[in-house]
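In response to the reviewer comment on reproducibility (Comment 2.3), we provide here a single inverse folding case reported in full, input and output, so that an independent group could reproduce the run without further information from us. The structure tokens appear first.
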């Protein structure tokens, strides 16, 4: 992703990189996980007063899930409303509790997705009986253990970089644009400039678009894409 360009100096040199597109994820920071909570489907409060306490335990499921997520060192948990439109890169986490008449049991279904896709990265399902008694902490423990065993953030991000050429760190979280040029020029001289876009783990990124501006000089061309050499 190195790119040679010509720079002509006209006065005092000041260079700014206007834009470099990257993923801005991982490499020195936690992955953002937007938690939408758990909602129930087809479960009504029982008329029998002796069973209502078990029904009300459904409200504890959210708390136990968040506690489990917060134990994960690579995740930054961000609770949001279910109808929130997520525009930033990260992950979406939500759950469903439903009743299956055919199986005559209840299910906790947890789903982990990338915000940029509707595809489910990982999911888990656990069946349980709500009545006559149940322990929501045990149900959540089983569901979360299954789910987290199927999630590897580093592997997910590396796969996205390989397929879509997204940077893990962008130019914010450890990624950088390296500039090599002669800084001893005087007014009217020109020189070649070597630019290299490097991800936060040191890997070069190809095909990245960079807009160049300078006070006291001119870049030719002013808009480039990094090539296959890094």
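Designed residues, in position order:
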């Amino acid at each position: 992703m190195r790119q040679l360009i010509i720079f002509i100096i006209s006065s005092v040199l000041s260079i700014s990189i206007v834009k470099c597109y990257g993923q801005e994820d991982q490499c020195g920071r936690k992955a953002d996980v937007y938690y939408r909570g758990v909602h129930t489907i087809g479960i009504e409060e029982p008329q029998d007063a002796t069973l209502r306490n078990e029904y009300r335990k459904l409200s504890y499921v959210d708390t136990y899930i968040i506690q489990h997520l917060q134990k994960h060192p690579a995740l930054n948990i961000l609770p949001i409303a279910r109808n929130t439109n997520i525009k930033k890169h990260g992950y979406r986490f939500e759950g469903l509790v439903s009743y299956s008449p055919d199986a005559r049991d209840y299910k906790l279904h947890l789903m982990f997705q990338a915000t940029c896709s509707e595809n489910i990265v990982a999911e888990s399902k656990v069946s349980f009986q709500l009545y006559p008694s149940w322990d929501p902490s045990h149900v959540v423990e089983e569901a979360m253990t299954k789910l987290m065993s199927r999630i590897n953030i580093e592997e997910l991000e590396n796969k996205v970089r390989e397929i879509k050429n997204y940077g893990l760190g962008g130019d914010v979280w450890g990624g950088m644009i390296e500039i090599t040029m002669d800084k001893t020029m005087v007014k009217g001289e020109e020189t070649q400039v070597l630019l290299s876009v490097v991800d936060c783990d040191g890997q070069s990124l190809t095909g990245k678009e960079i807009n160049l501006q300078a006070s006291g000089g001119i870049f030719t061309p002013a808009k480039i894409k990094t090539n296959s050499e890094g």
